[in-house]
Design the sequence.
């Protein structure tokens, strides 16, 4: 049982816009910024979005993040086949005094 | 470009101690939170703990009694020891660099991962 709640799966067709949600509580998302990681099959996670909505160098602007209250979202526009991956949200939890992850959402490009 | 590389035994017997080392290259080890994260087969990510470059540590409460993470700045390495392992500790173990800024805390560089299987 993950501290942050994500849908287990999401899907879309090429070119579509897809969003993945991440729900938490006042001790985590409600008081700290959210980060998103992309994990392609058989590889290590890669930082996709940090500090709610910032993209590291090299991450396409098709990826965007937002946060409101105790929830956050990752949006992917212009969906491409290479976006098929697992996506994890994470943030700091003040009660745990450490970072917590969502259970991950598997994105399928139909 | 910062690179991290895990090393250590891929097979550990139940009740023994799992030991992994992460070697950091291409950047300074100072000023960051050097972190271990694991991923059981077919499951999500779990934070194990971190050691700051000064040597201070912070562990996941669920693993705290069995975990030790240390840093050797002279070798640009940090290490994980997990004692009394069981089959439930079978996972891919990742080392990662934790960055903290006024906006938040995140892992910006990751190792490729080390598969560790607990079996007799």
Sequence:
């Amino acid at each position: 049982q993950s501290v942050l709640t994500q849908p287990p799966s999401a899907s879309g067709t090429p070119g579509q816009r897809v969003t993945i949600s991440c729900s938490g509580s006042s001790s985590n998302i409600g008081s700290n910024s959210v980060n998103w990681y992309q994990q392609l099959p058989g590889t290590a996670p890669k930082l996709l979005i940090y500090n709610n909505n910032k993209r590291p160098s090299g991450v396409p602007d098709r990826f965007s993040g937002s946060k409101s209250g105790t929830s956050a979202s990752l949006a992917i526009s212009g969906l491409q086949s290479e976006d098929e991956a697992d996506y994890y949200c994470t943030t700091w939890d003040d009660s745990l005094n450490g970072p917590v992850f969502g259970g991950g959402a598997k994105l399928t490009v139909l | 470009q910062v690179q991290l590389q895990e090393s250590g035994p891929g097979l550990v017997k139940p009740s023994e101690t799992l030991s992994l080392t992460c070697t950091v290259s291409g950047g300074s080890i100072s000023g960051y939170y050097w972190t271990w994260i694991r991923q059981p087969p077919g499951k999500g990510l779990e934070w194990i703990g971190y050691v700051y470059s000064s040597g201070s540590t912070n562990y996941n409460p669920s693993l705290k009694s069995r975990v030790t993470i240390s840093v050797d700045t002279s070798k640009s390495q940090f290490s994980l020891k997990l004692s009394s392992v069981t089959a439930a500790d079978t996972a891919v173990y990742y080392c990662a660099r934790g960055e903290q800024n006024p906006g938040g805390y995140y892992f910006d560089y990751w190792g490729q991962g080390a598969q560790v299987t607990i079996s007799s």
About this structure: Chain A touches chain B at residues 2, 32-35, 37, 43-47, 50-52, 54, 56, 88, 90-92, 96-104 (CB under 8 Å). The mean pLDDT of chain A is 96.
